[in-house]
Amino acid sequence: MSKVCTENLDRVYSALLYMRAPVVMSEHTLHELALTTLKNSGIEAMHEVLISPGCRIDILAGSIGIEIKRGRPNKKVLLEQLKKYAASDSIGAIILITEKSVPMPDKINRKPVKTIALNRLWGIATPTVHVNNNALDDFAFNDCEKPTEKYLIKEEAEKTEEGINKSIDIDEINTLPSYLLEPINIGRTYGKLSYNRRRKCWTITGEPYVTELAKRLFPGSGKARRGTAYLPDHPRSVGDCNWLMQKYPLEIAERDRELWESRIEAARQREIRLRFLHSGLKHISPKEGSFIGKLMPFQKEGATWLYHTQRGLLADEMGLGKTVQVLYTIAALKVFPVLIVVPAHLVRNWESEIQRFLRLNGKTPRVHIIKGLTPYKLPEADIYIVHYLLLRGWKEALPMYAFPFVIFDEIQELRHSGTEKYSSASLISSKADRVIGLSGTPIYNNGGEIWNVVNILDFHFLGDRESFTREWCYGYGNNIVAKPELLGSFLRQEGLMLRRTKAEVLPELPEKRRLVQHIDTDSQVYQALMQPVIDNIIKWHRDTELTPSERALLEGNISQGQRQATGIAKAAYVAQFVKALLESDEKVLLFAHHHAVMDIYKKELKRHSPVFITGRENDTQKQRSIDRFTEGRSDICCISLRAASGLNLQRASCVVFGELDWSPAIHSQAEDRAHRIGQKDSLLCYYLVAKEGSDADIQDALGLKVSQFMGLMGEKPQDKARETNLANLARNHAMRIIEKYLSNAGEKAV
Asked: Would you call 567 exposed, middle or buried from its count of C-beta atoms within 10 A (0-12, 13-18, 19+)?
């Protein structure tokens, strides 16, 4: 090592010894503190530097690489990371900054390594130590409030009975509860605590009454034999285990002691973050000029929540501006590069919103839209956008970039596990420091799908699937949440989800009214279209050589065939109903499912010049349809039920459902294409249902599913009494069609 490099290392190291940091700091804030400290010492440094493909170091000061870790990281993993840095020609020496001491070799690949343990200098992360309120005087928090100040509960301070502003002391937040302190040694243990590397969980073995207590008390505890209990390797579960050890001390396996200490420290930091989230922090404020626009008070509250949340779900009701809240947070955090994963039809919308609202060093951020299934070397950019359909092709490549900030828009796209898309998203999430999910409808077909969504955001926050179904659903393997309102409350209380409704934050928004309208059908058309369905029923009944997969495919065709027959048979009457609305000067969104139904609407409503968004149009044609409707050149827009997400069509005064979907979330999303900020009139939502066909069955199914959706999201369930009885209604639709036909024919189903 040259003399110049040695002098630079000593200079940088000496400067960093003057850092001052409270326990409440996030890793990003520690980055900012280090950069500020170096700047005050006249040392130039760059943040988040890509030193080789897929290898990014926190700070680079000349040839001195600086890596910052919160808590006490895993030594083995950290050593491998530092070896990658040391292999780069741009790195001459490494400085490692951690909150708790981690022994490291003096040299890696012949390059010097120095370590700074903040807790040894100033008591950082020591449970009994409070933050020094004067420690941050020289540090600017991105123009946001310093965490050492007293934070007002709301932006406008509330008054107590004494007329004094109500505030929360940061010292109260930083004082850890007793259950997170080191357990007292009472001279005996009740079992052993070890880490199961195969199952990636903590294992308690010992006195059966202790292990059974753990299984009964703690969410996410896995099923195990007598005398054994499994707990997820998650900060919440680790905190629970430490609470148990206060009364029933456990011997920690020697090989796992270091890992346990890092995990319990993460649990303590999580508790502090939760207190911050629930303390009513003052709204964040990005650096002047970095965000163009103005947010409403509730949107600032949402952005503040996102700012202080490492992993969370912003589940605001559709139409409340989730996108702009995220962009405001990006401007405040200044953590780049950001990866945004979106549905295909929203790629350009995100690009335009970024260009509209964000500025980085006075310029529009560099945005790169990832294209194609074949990975390529990504160009330098500040924000990357990729749609869900491409994730399977980039499964190996994208996680290698280790994006520090990842956003999953419409995260309900990941509600189904076991797919390449889901696996890729999970890998990307595991490499990120900060992960945010956005969705107004995070569950679709049943409440259990929330487990898949939460697992992307915070792995095993709800335990494994088996324990989730046992604790929150109607038993093992049943995905219907027994008490969705309680699960929703739990997610909000634990800081994982923020959910606001229009009624809560926008009382001035006109009401949305739902009306069920019975409508006629063309029986002859229906019967004719049902003949192929009947033929399939007969084949299902009489062909005993069908394989299970062939039989399942046939059942799907039967169910889908009746739905299409129903939609076509009533399409002309739906068009008549819509004509009456248009002649009354209403502006209509007409939703349907089948292309054949849309073709009838096109013919019947030709005189009114309808525009169409059905999934058959390219992006240019789709945008042309949107523009014609929003600009008033057409008063009717026909939209496919499954193509409704992300559209802003608040010009509409009526929403009409010509066909129904099994999922209440699909209807809610469709309604909210019009019921958004900017809506001037009360919105009428008409559900047109026919007595003949599949509508009655779907209506019954929606009773359960609306209850699931509304309960989990924090709203009042509509019909709780019917939850259990109707749980499998949609799934068994084909069997009901078969049984009805065979009953009329005087036969029995096999």
From this structure: buried
The answer to whether 377 touches 411, Cβ cutoff 8 Å, is no
DSSP 8-state class, residue 165: B
Task: Report CA-CA distances (Å) from 258 to 31, 78, 238, 247.
Answer: 25, 13, 14, 22
Answer positive or negative: Cα dihedral of 582, 588, 594, 598.
Answer: positive
Question: pLDDT tens digit string along 675-691?
Answer: 776 666 668 888 898 88
Within 10 angstroms of residue 158's Cβ, the number of other Cβ atoms is 12
Interval 657-668: pLDDT, tens: 999 988 887 888
Q: Are 151 and 280 in contact (CB under 8 A)?
A: yes
Q: Where are the domains of the chain?
A: 3-122, 178-277, 282-505, 512-744
Amino acid 690 reads A
Q: Express each pLDDT in 280-325 by its tens digit.
A: 667 888 988 999 999 999 999 999 999 988 899 999 987 788 999 9
Q: Are 81 and 69 in contact (CB under 8 A)?
A: no
**CATH homologous superfamily of 512-744:** P-loop containing nucleotide triphosphate hydrolases (3.40.50.300)
Q: How far apart are CA 590 and CA 685, in angstroms?
A: 10
CATH class of 282-505: alpha beta
**Apex 291 CA angle, 288 and 296, nearest 5:** 105
**Would you call 482 exposed, middle or buried from its count of C-beta atoms within 10 A (0-12, 13-18, 19+)?**
middle
CA 360 centroid distance within chain: 25
Radius of gyration of the chain (CA): 29
Q: Read off the pLDDT of residues 495-543 as tens digits, 9 standing for 90 and up.
A: 899 998 887 887 766 677 788 878 888 999 999 999 998 988 888 888 8
What distance in Å separates the CA atoms of residue 625 and residue 728, rounded to the nearest whole number?
38
Residues 6+ apart with CB under 8 A from 590: 574, 578, 601, 610, 636, 637, 638, 639, 656, 658
Please state which CATH number belongs to domain 3-122. 3.40.1350
In order of 9, 55, 296, 321, 510, the CA distances from 506 in angstroms are 55, 45, 10, 12, 9
* Residue 61, φ and ψ in degrees, nearest 5: -110, 95
DSSP three-state, residue 133: coil
Q: Is 134 exposed, middle or buried (0-12, 13-18, 19+ CB in 10 A)?
A: exposed
Tokens of 604: 């019947």
